[in-house]
Amino acid sequence: MESQQTHTNNSSHNLSLPLIDFTTEENVTPGTDSWVSACEEVRHALEDHGGFLALYDKVGSEVYESVYSSMEQLFDLPVETKKRNTTQKPIFSYSGQLSRIPLYESVGIVHALSVDECRNFTHVMWPQGNHSFCESVNSYAKQLQGLDQVVKRMLFESYGIENKKLECLLDSTDYVLRGYKYRTPKAGESNLGVAPHSDTAFLTILNQKVEGLGVKLKNGDWFEVGVSPSLYLVMGGDALMVWSNNRIPACEHRVLVNSKTERYSMGLLSYINKIMEAQEEFVDDQNPLHYKPFDHYGYLRFFLSDEALKSDSRIKAYCGI
Ligand SMILES: O=C(O)CCC(=O)C(=O)O
Ligand SMILES: [Fe+2]
């Protein structure tokens, strides 16, 4: 947290990523003045940088410590075991040993909000059982979903979009909880954990146990995210850019790994399981419609194709008008 405080100068020469407080009851209670101004902050941060930092204390240090120690146990399993978990959805369940980014490994737990799904996942990884893994992952995912939904509610409200549409979006959302591990670079090896990119998700909420996560601000500077159980990076992904008809840019971020400490981080990513269109609120004469109706899982399948690799903007290549 200390490092965050040193970045609060908002002059145009020294931009920082806005830090928005979700820990006070008034800020997260619809109808209060604080709620209305928090909604504005969320909207401006997303429009400016595609993301912001959330101060959010619902996870607590106990769950934070136990979920990260669970992740250590998970990544310590043999690669063959980690690969055992598969999903019908075109979301990587396990990703690692990639020549482009050799330090990186990631495991996705689809529907981690359901205790049953967490149990199934845990059983696949540890047939003998691992109760604390199941418990901590499920409660962590639930707390992150709370933040995800409040952010979406704020966003809809600040644009004056009716509540029914929010409910419909939330009902059509699939969540994936992802754990990331980065080994330290060997002598002569690059310290690049993940190259600059935007996520394919609608919204991503990331937290890290070890520093390394950077966000590109609208002036092009890289902002380094701090480490704390109550600090979460909220980022719009490609799907939010489609939904907002380019009003909200997909947040560019990257990971650098320091030479001494293995890095762990975790994120909750949301995907839309129905065809989604850019909202009419964002389309007018000055802002023509930029995207065709969008099939999120279709996009994920496209994203992994050879054709997509050739294009400089995969989202435009997939559904741009
Ligand atoms: O490790 C992190 O903090 C972020 C990883 C990431 O951006 C990704 O895999 O898309
Ligand atoms: Fe990412």
Automatic annotation (TrEMBL):
Listed InterPro entries: DIOX_N, IPNS-like_FE2OG_OXY, IPNS-like_sf, Iron_ascorbate_oxido_reductase, Oxoglu/Fe-dep_dioxygenase_dom
Taxonomic superkingdom: Eukaryota
Keywords: Iron, Metal-binding, Oxidoreductase
Transmembrane segments: none
Residue intervals of the Fe2OG dioxygenase domain: 172-274
PANTHER family the record matches: 2-OXOGLUTARATE (2OG) AND FE(II)-DEPENDENT OXYGENASE SUPERFAMILY PROTEIN-RELATED
Protein family: Belongs to the iron/ascorbate-dependent oxidoreductase family.
Protein name: Fe2OG dioxygenase domain-containing protein
Classification lineage: Eukaryota, Viridiplantae, Streptophyta, Embryophyta, Tracheophyta
